Write the structure tokens for this entry.
Amino acid sequence: MKIVYCLQGLHYSGGTERITTAKANYLVSHGIDVYIITTEDNDRQSFFPLDTRVKHCDLGLNLYAHWSNSLLKKIYFHIRNKWKFQHSLTILLNEIKPDIVISTFCGEVIPLSHWKGRKILEYHYSRYAFEQKRRITAFRFYDDWKYRQHLKAIKRYDRFVVLTHEDAQNWTEFDNVAIIPNINGFECEQSASLKNPVVVAVGRLVEHKGFDKLIEAWSIVCKRTEGWTLHIYGEGALRNELQKLIDEKGLGNRCFLAGLCSNIKEKYLESSIFTLSSVYEGFGLVLLEAMTCGVPVVSFACPCGPRAIIADGENGFLVPPGNVEELADKLIYLIQHPEKRKEMGMKAKQSTENFSEEKVMRQWIELFEDLCKEKK
């Protein structure tokens, strides 16, 4: 079997890149030929370890290099690059002759939808995130047009793979939807002691991560507990705004914007609770990472992902989206009940086996085999 993945680039450090390289590495180790086609790498190395048997082909098109140009130049380069991409991609696919081509919903989603062979579209976010891309600005007409083009493209794929049953219910207009969760590629043999008075959150400092809500909840926690600190790992455009909120709440010695971390596993193991305050997620891999380290979690039940990962009251707590008071209450409960923390942490680690590489990749291979049996 010969499989091709298409995505923007491997040098990025995002979740899509991490999951794609993990899947590619698994497949080649099981005798499947894997190619990865990118457009933006330009001889830059993969950020995540890539098996040497995976064949990486970069088209060198730099599709996003002209965003800073004037509007007319943007339009010109967009049209030119779209044609070049379709042409180059088609030539390369005709040379490779893959059994299945997989789009990761990057710039190739529409061009690849016209490919005559078997093809899969996998979406690493959710319908909620998909809808948020339609801006209420002067570009709304372009966004609406692109939105409709994407919906047409989804119908042309043999399978449209989403991450959760929850999100699948949001795409009921399509009859090609399949559900396969993300791999938990995070490994940790140890378990956190859960004795340190530390709560951890991880994510980009951007609006949809909801860290402003978390800081508000933490200000309530600080009024009712002593000694515990919150550490938020990540960087982003809202750093100054969030730091200002921390200062206004008088939390300077109990809430820290800790920046990027090269060894987040160490931080999980040093913590006793993990919390997620997002407005929406595609899946919530950071939840699985923390739980793999035996850390109980408290999360908003946002769309989509937390409900698929957390069994409320067993391996963590689910809180109604945006409910700051209840988020604070659940954090306080775990702070004040160390035995419950320990019990939930143990169950959290056990539950991550549902997302093991072996279990998830078995589902992918079954999907590949089913598609290859179907007649075009």
The mean pLDDT is 92. The first strand starts at residue 2 and ends at 6. The two ends are 17 Å apart (CA to CA).
